[in-house]
Amino acid sequence: MSAENNNPKPLTKKLGLLDATLIVSGSMIGSGIFLVSADMSRGLGSAGWLLLAWVLAGVITLLGALSYGELAGMMPKAGGQYVYIQKAFGKLTAFVYGWTVFTVIQTGVIAAVAVAFAKYTGQIFPWWNENHELLKIGAFSVSWAQVLAIFLILFLTAINTMGIEEGKWLQRLFTVSKVLAILGLVTAAFLIGGKTGYLAQNFNHAFEAASSPETESNWTALGSLALLAAFGTAMVGSLFSSDAWNNVTFIAAEIRQPEKNIPRSLFIGTLLVTLLYLLANMAYLSLLPLQGASDGTLEQQGISHAPFGRVGTSAAQMIFGEPGVILMAILIMISTFGCNNGMILAGARLFSTMAKDGLFFKRAAKTNKNGVPATALWAQATWASVLCLSGSYGDLLNYCTFASLVFYIVTVAGLFVLRKQEPGMERPYKVIAYPIVPAAYILLAGGVAVCLLVFKTENSMAGLGIVALGAPVYLLLQRFKKSESEAGS
Hints:
Blueprint (H helix, E strand, L loop, with lengths): L16 H12 L7 H9 L2 H28 L6 H9 L1 H34 L8 E5 L2 E4 H18 L2 H30 L4 H5 L7 E2 L8 E2 L2 H18 L5 H4 L7 H30 L10 H4 L9 H10 L2 H34 L17 H17 L2 H29 L14 H20 L1 H32 L1
Antiparallel strand pairs: 1-2, 3-4
Helix pairs in contact: 1-7, 1-11, 1-14, 2-9, 3-9, 3-11, 3-16, 3-17, 4-5, 4-16, 5-6, 5-14, 5-15, 5-16, 5-18, 6-7, 6-14, 6-15, 7-11, 7-13, 7-14, 9-17, 13-14, 14-15, 16-17, 16-18, 17-18
């Protein structure tokens, strides 16, 4: 007999404001901040535009978090964003959101972060190198890095099935560790970077935009339209690195005073990460030239052409020499470990809520003897592991960045709908400067979405395709439930 059927316990409120804040910030900080600035720099070619892309991502995230705070206070239930969408727009839209989260957004990010963990483990222990193959059959191959990534997902899932306390302490340990490590790296960078002169050099022509191919050293000045395209494309990196802040809403049923602590944690967590990201980029700019070349020394390659895009590793090498490679690998391992724990812990609660509505596997609705939705956790782990093996997780992330942004916009739009439809509903927290804050979020996020749709059409349309597929799946599910009901009557 399964654990779910043996003395199941309800979800219990064991998380406070600190834990909620650490879930927000810990889920946001993965490997992106150590990698994406290289690609963004090649596309933008200037310190001013690079920082503006990070600032705008932070502003968009903060506006979204403030708007979600009101929704979280109104509906402090497990499932979070899924619940808000259902209340404002109905079951179909909510299912399509949950479908996208399960197929690519949550599981795809879990897979990608796990593979990032494995890749950096391979820098210390070559056995786990992504080029070290375990199995190869025709075009299909499995590397030891993929095996380690799957093991990490299964290990963290097993820990989280033991109870919310175990997941909570893991999140505390690894989030605090990576925040302190990033602050330590930034402090060392500013102490050493002051002697390099690169910070002043990078800001000499702060807004003279240019671009350079990854494998070449030439730089081409960007006109207005080309800059718009480059800036919109660059925003994928900064927004992706700032994503997953909404995960805390999925776990509302296990947070004490969720109507107060979720809005607070959303604001504090997103503000903390935004500041850390800006400090990290200032550290890079103080240690390395932004415009680099495709070959040469570490300094000559600069931020834009950092080897394998690992700008964080290049920065650490500038501070610590060759040992910096190992130190950065350890930091990213800590960061990705904590990031995945937060996402695994929170994501399963959404799928459990869907199951209670009859929109996911029935057993996923049940909790085990430790009071956690174990079946939902293992379903999430299984699909994330498949994505690790598929080799397509990178594409999936590109597809879901646009889809994820669309659902953020839909959710914030739901705030306007509920203000009109449910004026008497209790609102322990009301978004400041309404309607300016949510409207500003929709306009800014919508602008980025349009840029992605125009300039990254293939990936954006693929993301929309995954979203659209949820509608016929919902209709089939409803038809199946109706047939099942008629057969039983």
